[in-house]
Each structure stands twice: as structure tokens, then as C-alpha cells.
Amino acid sequence: MEGAPRTALDLFSGTSRVGHALKREGVRVHANDHNAYAYALAGCYVAADARTWRDRAARLIGELDALRGRGGWFTETYAVRSRYLKPANAARAEAIRARIAKLSLEPALEAIALTSLIEACDRVDSTVGLQMAYLKTWAPRAHQPLALRVPEILDGKGSASCLDAREAALRHEVDVAYLDPPYNQHSYLGNYHVWETLARGDRPEVYGVACKRADVRERGSAFNRRTTMETAFEDVLARVRAKRIVVSFNNEGYLTLPRLRELLGARGRVREVSVEHPRYIGHKLGIYNLQGEKVGTPGPARNREHLFVVECNMARARRARALANAVTG
Ligand SMILES: C[S@@+](CC[C@H](N)C(=O)[O-])C[C@H]1O[C@@H](n2cnc3c(N)ncnc32)[C@H](O)[C@@H]1O
Predict the structure, then answer these.
(1) Strand residues in 223-262 grouped as ranges (E)
(2) C-beta separation of 266 from 23 below 8 A
């Protein structure tokens, strides 16, 4: 592919950090993720055009930030029954979420408001970053009052969707597609279930000490299962229509690196870079049983992140397009 990309597709967008960085470089980005909280982040950081929304977003967030707390189901579930947020902060988050729903905002403005709320909660939550569990004693930051900020929205157009990656891949033809799928059993929905509830504004059935949403058990990703990961990745790859495909993976995934190289090689010429990376926080904390005793030995302190860049063979891309047309009819 010659020159800088003008269009990009981030199929597993998560925080939308990548799409945001590309948008800042002037690339027109489409961001997709199947979880609602990630869709809100994508709507804010990738789809919303600051030229249209900056002033209204600042006014709205000022109004929302002035609301008093009003505790209900959300506060009871996440600040009393479990302890992700201090009750006063949870009650304010609950009041802000209720007001956002009542205002029936345009999608971009709603995404900006939800992002502001999720990020404000994230700054005062009482976890080590993941919502598999909360801390036994309140994290120091949890005592800070919840405060909204206007997210850093950028000038320029973009778009966002909340689809399975296989479906989103069919809908866009781009210069660069970025694939950063989950690579093991850890579900992003389970790890960020409180943000999912905030984004959806619903009152799901919850289970266990962590008060996870019941649908964490039903809405699993094919990428989180050893038996389905490879087929799911192959399916996505076959559907992607891009001149260049960039894939992020590590050496601990369900898909082995030799198999991944083989699959990518079928789409074109592959280059690869890899870097060592500290493993997630669980490694530092150790492994504990239900009685709080340290048990077992965590794995290695570091793992290796691989970035693959595929210059797609256009004849193969045409075959992928024919498949896409056949699937979409
Ligand atoms: C490794 S994370 C991506 C992180 C992202 N690159 C970032 O910078 O934050 C993988 C993402 O894939 C999403 N995901 C998992 N299965 C999916 C599927 N079948 N379709 C779409 N998104 C999926 C998860 O919600 C999660 O946000």
C-alpha cells in the first residue's frame, strides 16, 4: 500500500485509544466493539465530530456534574451489595445516568455523556482495574468525589458500531483494518460489567459476590473459547476488506503464533514485530483462595506482544469481497 492510510477499521475497539490516535492523524475511522460501554467510547472518541459537539458537550456535562445524588438500584447493587464505588459516588452516577436517559440525547451527545460518566466512575472506583472483584478495603481514590470532565473529542468525521466483528468486517472497505481480538478466556464483558450496566442504563439480574450481570454468562465471545477462537478469527479475516491488515496478538493466546502466521500469510505478505510486556496486575498480586491465603504460583512476569502487518494480495482481497457479497446477498 502506497502512502498514509485515509480510512481505517478498528474491529475490536475496546477503549478506542487506537481509533482516537488514528483520527488525530486525520484518518477517517470506523470503530466497532460488541460491548455497549465500548460502543459509547467509540461514539465519543471516534464518531463524534468536535466541531459539531464541543460546545453542547461542555454545557451538558456542566449540568450533569451539578446533579445531586439519588440512590436506587445501581447504588444498592454496586455500592452496598458489592463495593465498586462509595455510596455517595454511586448515587451521583445513578442520578446522572437517569438524567442522560431522560434527555433522549442525539447519539453522539449521549456517547460523550456516557463516556464522561464511565471515566469519572473509573477514577474513583475501588478495584485494581478489572471488575472481577473489588477491594476488601476502600481504595484511597474511592474517597474522592465523582467529578465529570469533558472527554477529549476530536474534529473530524468517523463512525461506530456495536456488532459482532464478523458482521462489522463485511460492512467496510478500508485502507487499514486493525484486529486486536481477545486471545484467552477472560471476557471483557465480565471484566467491565459495571461500565456495561452504566452504558445500557438497565437493571440486569446479577450473580455472585462480584454482582456480575447474568448476561455475562450468555453473551460470551467466540474469541474467549479455546474451541471456537481459531474459526472465529478465520471468519473475521476472510471478511476483512482492506489493503493492509494489522493484527495485535501475544504468545499466550488460544491461537498459536505459527498458525496465526499461516492464516495471515494466506492474505498477503506478512511483517512482524514483537515487544516484551509486563503481564497484567494479577501477576504482581499473586493468586489467592477464597480464605484470602496466597496459593499457587503465578506465570512468568512478562509476555511477548506481537504486531503483524499484512500487505494484502488484492486478488485474494477480491475473493474475500466475493465471499462478502455472497454472505450479504
Ligand atoms: C484486546 S481488546 C481490544 C483493546 C483495544 N485495542 C484498546 O486499545 O482498548 C478486545 C475487544 O474485543 C471486543 N470483542 C470481543 N469479542 C468480540 C466480537 N465477537 N465482536 C466484536 N468485539 C468483540 C471486547 O469487548 C474487547 O473490547
Answers:
(1) 241-250
(2) no
Q: Find cell 456535562 and name the residue.
A: 61
pTM: 0.91
d(CA 20, CA 46): 6
Instruction: Return the half-sphere exposure (C-beta side, CA atoms, 13 A cut-off) of residue 316.
Output: 19
Ligand 1 neighbourhood includes 186 CB (under 6 angstroms): no
Per-residue pLDDT tens digits of the chain, which is 329 residues long: 667 899 999 999 999 999 999 999 999 999 999 999 999 999 999 999 999 999 999 999 999 999 999 999 999 999 999 999 999 999 999 999 999 999 999 999 999 999 999 999 999 999 999 999 999 999 999 999 999 999 999 999 999 999 999 999 999 999 999 999 998 888 999 999 999 999 999 999 999 999 999 999 999 899 999 999 999 999 999 999 999 999 999 888 899 999 999 999 999 999 999 988 776 555 555 555 555 566 666 666 678 889 999 999 877 667 766 776 776 65
From the number of C-beta atoms within 10 Å of its C-beta (0-12, 13-18, 19+), residue 109 rates as buried
Q: How far is the CA of 14 from the centre of ligand 1 (A)?
A: 5
- Rounded to whole angstroms, the Cα distance separating 65 from 72 reads 18
The answer to whether 142 and 90 are in contact (CB under 8 A) is no
Q: Which atom of ligand 1 is nearest to the CA of 165?
A: 20
Please state, in angstroms and as integers, the Cα–Cα distance from residue 182 to each residue in 13, 250, 255, following that order: 11, 10, 11
The Cα–Cα gap between 184 and 251 comes to 11
Q: Which protein residue's CA is at the shortest distance from atom 16 of ligand 1? A: 221
Q: Does the beta carbon of 39 sit less than 6 angstroms from any atom of ligand 1?
A: no
- Strand, helix or coil for residue 310: strand
| Residues contacting 324, CB < 8 A, separation 6+ | 170, 239, 241
